[in-house]
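Entry:
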Amino acid sequence: WLSILESICEGFDEETASPDFRLWMTSVTTTNFPVPILQNCIKVALEEPLHVKENLLRSQLSSKQDISKFNDSGSMYKKMMFSFSIFHAVINERVHFKEVGWNQDYVFSKKNLKLSLSYLSNALNENKDVSLKAISYLTSECIYGSGMEDDLDGRTMETIFRKFCCQELVDTDEKSFDDHNVYNVKPFATFDEMLGYVSGLPSATRQELLGMQESVADHRNRKDTNKLLNNLMLTQNISVHSKVLSDNEAILERVLEIIKKLPNSFVMPNLGEDMYKSMNIILCQQLDSCNKLISACAGAMTSTQEAMMGTNVMNETVENILDHVKNNKVPKEFKVLTYQTTFNLQQFIEDLSDRACFLQSWLDNVFPQKMDFSAITHPSSLLTALLQDFSRTHNIDFEDLHILSTVVPDEDSPVPEGSIMLRNLSVVGGIWDYQLEALVDLSPNSNTVNKMPPIILTPSTDKPDPSLYPCPVFRTLERSGKENLAMVLELPITGTVDLWIERGTALCIQKICN
């Protein structure tokens, strides 16, 4: 039918058509929509609601059949139907919090909610006893979580759903999801009564319902503002990259500056019989990885310098590098040779220089027990080597070992033999309390990202305390990407583990540049 529509639109004659004629159309997203029509029309997109109230109002735009079904249903379905709707609205609003809400980008459509409510209705009709375990599995894992490849996001989804599908909801007539009794679930007598209740909710969502903190909400508002301003700048063909250069002399100066800062390649050590020791294997892997990156950077910058000075050909590859230098962006050819990063090109080169200094110190001396994980390409490999050395030294089965983490006040704290100290980590969505020796909530005026004290990692046969929060450690603040998650450390907290999972609290390895 779309091809017929295209023919009809092409046949419109401005001379014979009424000046008051307008064609209004609504459509779902489709790749088959005729391009000429899109090019000649004014497009209005229906964006996802920003807040829980907006989402609830839109999700309740139901057919007469659905309204009649709600009015004829029992109190249990009415309570759980509204609770599911709030859950759907909450996980959608968390999308706008970016990495603090979810690690990856998701779209939770109304189809997910409809499918969940359909299963809920069947489950309540077929069984006298409500099986929360079955409902939770099919809703949070199968329906909403089916498209999630990130295990941590799956953990967050299950944790949030448990709050909206719990035994208290089954046993009581009314349940509140916040301390101020703003968001309440009860068996509304009619659909209109429920709609009236939703209309009376505050426009701005209380962060407590989302499992967020007020300062994180401010962080979200700032990011939304920056995104809007950046998009406006792009429409005006204004570059948003930091320190963009337009003068050839300035570009050449930046190239020469990068060449000057690049470290020399390493000479691979001759370790003899010791080369097969766990930590020496890790050292050789790190040196080889660093050498490849140094070689790629040096070759690209030298070719660019020669091309700009007229002693070499300005081919497509050199032009690509030149464009990245001009915009202070890291070329893809460099990114594939190292860990995930959000640095600009100058910061990237400085980080490479710091990494080379660390490896040179390791090469000249013994294994450094105090380190920045930003200098290690694969932290999980180093932790495995740490466990292997401990296993051989103490004659303990490798499978019985775990990594225990201890937060210490400062870098002068002693590091036990066989352990390592991680320095210069940042914590997102929390702050360390030195008196309580635990992670605590952010105050309203706190920064979202704060410095974390050093953490000592120690191999042990003891299992981590289940009351500790399994805190993910990411490479960058932007948590997306398969290689971004470095490890998970158990940290002491105030409150419950579920609370901190909702908070999305995590540690970050990459140094935060102002």
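The chain has a mean pLDDT of 89.
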